[in-house]
Amino acid sequence: MTTQLLSTTEQDLERAAELIRAGGLVAIPTETVYGLGANGLDAAAVEKIFLAKGRPQDNPLILHIHDASQLPDFCREIPDAAWKLAERFWPGPLTMVLPVADAVPKTTTAGLDTVGVRCPDNDATREIIRLAGVPIAAPSANTSGKPSTTTAAHVLHDMDGKIAAIVDGGPCRVGVESTIVDLTGPMPRLLRPGGIGPEALEQVLGALIVDRAVTGEIAKDAVVRAPGMKYKHYAPAAEVLIVEGPAEAAARYVRARFQPGDAVLCFEEELPLYAGCNPTAYGRESSPATLSAGLFGALRKLDGGDVQRIFARCPTGGGISVAVRNRLRKSAGFHIVNAEE
Ligand code: TXA
Ligand code: MG
Question: Does one domain contain both 183 and 252?
């Protein structure tokens, strides 16, 4: 199959919608990461997503809608909290888990009786959903186990020849996947940190339970609420070691151990500390949004070469830094040292 490259002209968006309606796979831009989209109501189309990604069948997909008013078409028993969150954060990087309606096939939800729904903050993609007349089921548009894709070039690298088209909407603004909150239990539960920080959710929801998957390592056989959280995601081929602690202490730690074949993933502010240590900056420590926007691209870049080990610096603090920390820790397989100990 030849993968078509589409732009965001009205004509190309109509073409993308047509391909979706015909049961094809189309990579779509969103504010978080690129999605690998198919008609979310067509089980046969959705099955192709799992094949193209090499994704385990027990990992459910997020359903993308163009407007919150579509919620009742695909979910049941929608609590007030869901409407409040939609009002405050949609379109935007928030996925809500709600009881699924009959219209959604089991293939999309991996057999669960709930579904993750999100209205992405990207005009082109919302237009495609509107034109297609169906919700778009889409995981991140990367090969399973690789970092999510934040540019059309990343998508092409992973999916060339495997999907019908890629809509190039430019680089993704947020750069890490959406925040997922489960609203099906007695208390709202944060399943995955993302573009919306836990503090902002709490402002709307009052209390919020933070799932252990957000901060800690999960045992292989544990029952997890977001099935995707149990896989070691976002991992480059190189071994990743997170070095915590103040800038100077961390640099001393790394410099004492640095060997040929190693690389450093750090903040722009720290580049001078790692001269001669093959450093790559993924953003500024003083601006966490630049860190989330740059993380996956930097991991992909380091993954491309012959780097064997990556010493990584990780932001502290709340907001989107929680998501950056979560993704980096996973890519490191929770291999973390404190430079001062
Ligand atoms: O920002 C995003 O969310 C991107 C863009 C494309 O929208 N999508 C994305 O999809 O990150 P994916 O498939 O890579 O990650 C979805 C996560 C998985 O961990 C999956 O297990 C979880 O959401 N999930 C999906 N439906 C769920 C459900 N009903 N209950 C619990 N977790 C669910
Ligand atoms: Mg993913």
Answer: no
Q: What pTM does this model have?
A: 0.95
Range of the domain at 79: 4-214
> 265 and 162 share a domain?
no
| Residue 291 and residue 143 share a domain | no
Task: Name the domain count of the chain.
Answer: 2
Exposed / middle / buried, residue 219 (Cβ in 10 Å: 0-12, 13-18, 19+): exposed
What is the CATH number for 182?
3.90.870.10
Residue 152 predicted with pLDDT over 90: yes
Task: Answer yes or no: is pLDDT of 341 > 70.
Answer: yes
Q: What are phi and psi of 135, to 5 degrees?
A: -75, 150
- Ligand 1: which residues within 6 Å by Cβ? 30, 32-33, 35, 59-62, 93, 95, 97, 109, 112, 114-116, 118, 120, 138-140, 177-178, 180, 191, 225-229
Pocket test for ligand 1, best of 140, 172, 173, 230 (most atoms within 8 A of CB): 140
Question: What per-residue confidence (pLDDT) applies to 29?
Answer: 98
**Torsion sign over Cα 80, 77, 71, 33:** positive
